[in-house]
Amino acid sequence: MGSSSPARTVWVEVQPRRYPVIIHPGGLASLGAILAEHLKAPRAFLITDRNVGLLYADQAAAALREAGFEPTVFAVEPGESSKSLQTAGRIYDALAAAKIDRACPAVSLGGGVVGDLTGFVAATWLRGIPFAQCSTTVEANVDASVGGKTAVNHASGKNMIGAFYQPQFVLIDPDTLRTLSERDYRAGLAESIKHAVVRDADFFDWHERHADEIRTCQVDCLPELFERNVRVKAEIVAQDEREITGLRALLNFGHTVGHAIESAMARRGRPWRHGEAVAAGMVAAAEIAVAAGRLDRAAAERIVELIRRVGLPIAAPLADAHDELWRLIEADKKVSAGRLRFVLADAIGRARLYDDVQHPWIQAGIARAVG
Predict the structure, then answer these.
(1) Residue 201: which domain range?
(2) Fewer CB in 10 Å around end: N or C, the chain?
(3) What span, in angstroms and rounded, lies between the C-alpha atoms of 10 and 22?
(4) How many domains, the chain?
C-alpha cells in the first residue's frame, strides 16, 4: 500500500452539517492538513490507545504540528475497559491542563473503543468541541467510525452513557492495517458481511467473488471494500441518524445472539473478538429467518459459507450454554416491552426488524450457532 493510491470520499448527509469519510492509503500523513481545512485552532488533543500510540501517534502528532496545531497526546489502555466514566474523567483533567477550548478539536486515533470514547468526551467537554476520527481497524473502517454514535459503558451494560455527535470528518488509512493481527483483521470483516446482507445484494455478490482476496488482506480490494461499506452505513445514518424510524436498527443484524455469545465466551475466560461473536450471531439470525419462513435455505447457506470463507467462525464452543445464552438474550437492551426483537433477512440484501419472533425459531438459531 502507498500514498500514491488516490483518495476516495463518501459524504455522510446528516444535519446540520454533512461530513466526509476519506479513504486514503497513506493518508495519516495528511491528518493535520485535512483538519486545517475544516477548522482553525491553536491546539489539538489526540486520543489513542497504548498499542496504536506506539505505532502511529508520533506520525499523527507530526502531521498535526506541520499544519499549525500544537498536539497533546493522551493514551488509554487498550480494550473495552477504557470506555468508562473513570477514563473520561482522566481525559477531562488532561483537556483542562492542555487548555482545550471550544475551538480546539479532539482527534481519535485507533479503533472503535477509542473512537467511541473520543466522541463522548468531545460531545461533553465544554458542551461540545469539534472532533475528527482517524480509524486504524477494519471494524472501525467499515462500521464504528461512521454514524456519530459515541458512548462509554456502565455496570448495567455496554454503551449505556452516550450521545449522537458527528465528527468533522473520518480518515481511513488502509496502510495502518499492516500492523493488525490476522485475527483482528478478520474479526472486522463480520460487519462488512452484515452490511451486505441487510442492504446490498450486489455487495454480497462482490464479497463472494473476492472472498479469498478479502480474507488475505489483498491491498487492491481494500479501498473498494471500505468505500462500499461506508456508503451503506452513510445511507442508513442519513435516513435515521438518531434511531427514530427503525431503519438504523438493521445494523444490529447478528448482534442479539452475537452479544450473548461474546458475553458467554468472556465469562469462560476465552474471550472472542466482537466480530467473531457477530459472525456466529449472523449464522443464528439466518437460521432463525429460515425457521420463521422468511429466508430460503439456499440464501441462508450462502451467508454461512461466506462467513466461513473469509475466515470467521460459524459456531461458538458453547454447546452446554443454551440456557445461559437465553438469559443473556432476554437481558439485551434491544428487548422492547418484554418482546424479543430480531433483525431478520427476508432475502440477501433486504432485512427487517421483527418483534414477533417465536422461541422455537430462536432455539433453532442458537443450536446452529453453538457447537
Answers:
(1) 185-369
(2) C
(3) 7
(4) 2
Query: What is the H or E stretch that residue 86 is in?
Result: helix 85-97
124 to 120, 153, 163, 340: CA distances (angstroms): 6, 15, 9, 33
Cell numbers placing 88: 473520561
DSSP code string of 307-353: HHHTT--SSBS-TT-HHHHHHHHHTSTT-BTTB--EEEEEETTEEEE
131-135 and 170-172: which strand pairing? parallel
Dihedral angle of Cα 84, 105, 43, 135, to the nearest 10 degrees: 70
In this structure, how many other beta carbons lie within 10 angstroms of the beta carbon of residue 218?
A: 12
Query: pTM of whole model > 0.85?
Result: yes
Residues 115-152 pLDDT 10s: 999 999 999 999 999 999 999 999 999 999 999 999 99
Q: Distance between CA atoms of 323 and 163, rounded to whole angstroms?
A: 34
Which residue, chain included where needed, has cell 483518495?
7
Residues assigned a catalytic role: 127, 149, 191, 233, 243, 248, 252, 255, 259, 274
The neighbouring-strand residues paired with 108 are 47, 133
Instruction: Give the domain-ending residue among 158, 179, 200.
Output: 179
Rounded to whole angstroms, the Cα distance separating 204 from 306 reads: 9
Residue 3 placed within a domain: no
pLDDT in tens, 6-31: 899 999 999 889 999 999 999 999 99
Q: Is residue 2 situated within a structural domain? A: no
Residues 209 and 234 reside in one and the same domain: yes
Question: Distance (Å, rounded) from C-alpha 39 to C-alpha 309?
Answer: 44
